[in-house]
Amino acid sequence: MNSKTLTSDLALRGGRPAVAATEPKVEWPILTDADREAVLRVVDRKILWAQTRPEGLYAPEQFALEQEFAAFVGVKHALAVNGGTAGLHMALTAAGVEPGDEVITSAFSFLATPAAILHAGATPVFADIDPRTFNLAPAEIERKITPRTRALMVVDIHGLCADWDPILELARKHDLIVTEDACQAPGATYKGRAAGTFGAAAGFSVNGTKNFAVGEGGFMVTNDDEVRARGNWLKQVGEELPESDRTMAYKHLLAWNYRTQELPCALGRAQLARLRAVNATGQRNARLLGELLQGVPGLRPPYVPEGSVSVYHKYRITLAPEELDTRLRGALLRDAFLQALRAEGVDCDLWGSAPLCAHPMIQARTPRDRADDYPATVAMFANSFCLGSDAHPLYCQPEGLVRAWAEGLRKVAAAAAGL
Ligand SMILES: Cc1ncc(COP(=O)(O)O)c(C=O)c1O
User: Fold this and answer.
1) Confidence label for 241 from pLDDT (cuts 50, 70 and 90)
2) Total domain count, the chain
């Protein structure tokens, strides 16, 4: 602890904020001339969606985006859709999940993950997380397998790939379909393999908060021609497409309208061209924070296992209260910390607050599932918060702001007695 930091230094107690009001800060999403040109290209072309022509469907931005994103992920097929939730539902059903199946997923994700499972007619079964990575703990998955388990929906949370080797081994052993929620992780890798390539199909999101931000939209990706064909069927209300007569085989599949439009697809192409640079900025900032926070008692930066490359969609800091000069514990300490950080001018946020089973929509369906059954997830929520916010995420900030945020963190940790 820095003994020179007094509690009266805290901005909360009248001290000077660690982040000066004049410190340059970047608002997300970044929109450039390239984005403007992309959108105007569509307006000038006057083709707003996939039009049927005698020679087939015509949607130049959409089809190019699908190819470019497939190449980015390193998969054979990408289908552009109107949301990540849509992409997840398509991935599950196209990969073979059917009504009545159980699908094991993480207790820690966005509500869209279990909602997509319910939309597939299946039942979400939650498993607890690894307290270090916040991703599914393989041993917890195994504990939840029953004769009705048909599939896994594995989340790569906060831009860090799940622990895929043992998970894929489990899936092989129990003959389970593997699907992936890579909504937060385009560009992340695990032992050299890219997020979105581990299962039969994966979903991605490009909503406005993501490193790859279009506003609303998403993808289903797959290496499997059959899964791609079923996914395309599911994208179009089950309507037969001119492109393939094989879709006749899927007439039984109930589908929504998940189609996208040319304007967001054109914008998506411009944003995708910058995604590697955005991810690299997040990685540079995370590296810098790792150095600046090293040895600061009470603060644990996110853990990235060897062999994994995170894209830091969220930068979750865990508090170690026993190292801080305070008797506050759990959510009380976390909330006091957030309040003090915000007074210092540091952007910070909670992302989620309880295991997914606690959500009323899930409770209405599986009332016996209790939050206490997921102790690692409960402890993570109580003892951690995310640095940065939807409007000011870490992955687009200049170095000066990151240094000022680190100073705010160090200051609040050192003066924890004043919280
Ligand atoms: C982990 C996760 N899954 C699913 C989704 C759903 O994506 P969308 O909001 O594009 O439907 C999101 C994004 O919000 C997410 O973060």
Assistant:
1) low
2) 2
